[in-house]
Write a structure and sequence with these properties.
- The chain is of the alpha+beta class and 417 residues long.
- It folds into two domains: 4-173 and 398-415, 2-Layer Sandwich (Nucleotidyltransferase, domain 5); 219-339, no CATH class.
- It is 41% helix and 22% strand.
- The protein contains 13 helices and 20 strands.
- The chain has helices spanning 52-60, 79-82, 93-112, 132-148, 159-168, 218-230, 250-255, 267-279, 283-294, 298-314, 335-360, 380-389, 403-415; strands at residues 4-8, 13-20, 23-26, 36-37, 39-42, 50-51, 66-69, 84-86, 89-91, 118-123, 153-158, 175-182, 187-194, 208-214, 239-240, 245-246, 317-321, 330-334, 369-373, 394-396.
- The strands form six sheets. Strands 1, 2, 3, 4, 10 and 11 form a six-stranded mixed β-sheet that branches.
- Strand 15 (239-240) and strand 16 (245-246) form a beta hairpin.
- The radius of gyration is 22 Å and the shape is globular.
- The N and C termini lie close together (6 Å).
- The structure holds adenosine-5'-triphosphate (ATP) and magnesium ion (MG).
- The site of adenosine-5'-triphosphate has 24 residues, from helix 6 and helix 10.
- Magnesium ion binds next to loops.
């Protein structure tokens, strides 16, 4: 049997598993870790990027260079064509993403002790909502990246179906399951008939009853939390000038989006923000925005929002500290505030899950198993929403960050047998 692998290039975290000698094994992708943050740090000289935790560390250690996260969100968007300025030079996102995935490929080859040519890449049900062309483009872009780095045969599988395959090997009897894969960038669903007996079946079309997905994920929770509880302390919704106009919202919206933060560091934006500061009616707060942009600490702010979200998974209150911006600048944030801020996003997630059920023609009470995977299923409000939708179903939630990678490798065995 040809050796093959599955790559889960995630918005926040990535993993790879190989299928070799009848075994599926997760690849250590960063030291001994089987997942790697989808983060890149590019130092000023040449193009010698650093990936994952090491990249995050370089950024927080204030090393000189450019930090990037959530690159998957760029696929299928106009930014792919435009590229970005990195250390004063234009760079295409295709090259940046290719180098990140190539690093994953090399790790897999090291474990396999041979060059793997067959890959199944994971993909969300929709890269981009309600735009078939953009969605198609995103997959084409990923295909060309995989080919460019040397994969000869490239196939795709929906991420939630892969997660189902990973769980299937341990299932007793036949189960009607819904998978909810809630990641950093997208929430994806599949209603599927599972049984360890079916795992070897080549064609699963008759068992896959429906798929849906929305471009809502943990990144959006970070954004909502930042906009509702943090940005007002940086002058969001404050006014300027004789006409008492509101300062532009766009700065804050870009600042709250992992893949757009870097756009704010251009000389043009900085000079605009300085102009608004000059006429600002709330210089103390708006001045923090200016300082943040001048010091290029947007990612630190978003990281603090993300850390706060994660802290609020286990606690009712958390104090977010912004010492990196101003001594003793801290904001207490409650879980209730966070839940109010993300309510509408959780509504969209529940709606997509319900649509998946409707498309499948299965009634909620016929679902035996809810498979929760992806980091965002940790959020208590999200878990509550699924309990309400499927009160009688059992819940499986092992390997939240690696199930998609494992399942893609299982699928690669079938696709390249
Ligand atoms: N304990 C937690 N509480 C709340 N959110 C969490 C927790 N742990 C991780 N997350 C969030 O989960 C998200 C990452 O999940 P995951 O690694 O499954 O995403 P991904 O696979 O990279 O993204 P996608 O599948 O959308 O491309 C991040 O937004 C992260 O902040
Ligand atoms: Mg994922």
């Amino acid at each position: 049997m040809a050796i093959s692998c599955g790559i889960d290039f995630g918005t926040s975290n990535s993993s790879v598993a190989i299928a070799q000698h009848d075994q599926v094994i997760l690849v250590p992708v960063e030291k001994t870790h089987i997942t790697i943050p989808s983060a890149i740090f590019i130092p000023p000289q040449g193009y010698n990027p650093i990936y994952g935790r090491a990249a995050v560390k370089m950024f927080f250690d204030r090393q000189e260079g450019r930090f990037m996260r959530s690159l998957k969100r760029v696929l299928g968007t106009p930014l792919m064509k435009h590229g970005t300025q990195v250390n004063g030079k234009p760079l295409k996102f295709e090259k940046i993403i290719a180098s990140f995935i190539q690093n994953l490929k090399e790790r897999a080859n090291i474990l396999a002790k041979e060059e793997i040519e067959n890959v199944v890449m994971g993909r969300p049900v929709h890269f981009v909502d309600n735009d078939k062309d953009a969605d198609h483009r995103a997959q084409e872009e990923l295909t060309s990246i995989a080919q460019r780095i040397g994969y000869k045969h490239v196939e795709f599988q929906f991420e939630p179906i892969a997660a189902a395959f990973a769980h299937e090997v341990n299932i007793k009897g036949e189960k009607l399951a819904i998978v909810a894969d809630l990641g950093g960038g997208t929430s994806d669903f599949t209603v599927i008939r599972l049984s360890s007996q079916y795992a070897a079946k080549a064609d699963r079309a008759e068992d896959i009853l429906a798929n849906t997905g929305v471009r809502v994920g943990g990144n959006d929770f970070d954004k909502d939390l930042a906009l509702s509880s943090i940005m007002p302390e940086l002058g969001y919704l404050s006014t300027y000038g004789k006409k008492n106009l509101e300062v532009p919202l766009k700065y804050y919206h870009d600042l709250a989006e992992w893949s757009k933060v870097n756009l704010l560091y251009s000389p043009k934006v900085l000079s605009q923000v300085r102009q608004f500061f000059h006429e600002s009616h709330d210089k103390r707060r708006f001045g923090r925005l200016l300082k943040l942009l001048e010091q290029e600490r947007g990612h630190s702010l978003l990281s603090t929002a993300e850390d706060t979200k994660i802290a609020l998974t286990t606690r009712a209150d958390h104090t977010a500290s912004f010492d990196f911006l101003e001594k003793d600048f801290a904001i207490p944030i409650s879980r209730k505030q966070f839940e109010d801020a993300i309510q509408h996003e959780v509504g969209k997630i529940s709606k997509a899950a319900t649509e998946c059920l409707l498309k499948s023609g299965i009634k909620a009470d016929k679902i035996d198993l809810v498979i929760l995977t992806g980091g965002s299923t940790e959020v208590p409000l999200v878990q509550l929403a699924f309990k309400k939708l499927f009160p009688q179903a059992a819940v499986a939630d092992e390997n939240k960050l690696s199930s998609v990678g494992i399942g893609l490798a299982y699928d690669s065995r079938k696709k390249f047998r």
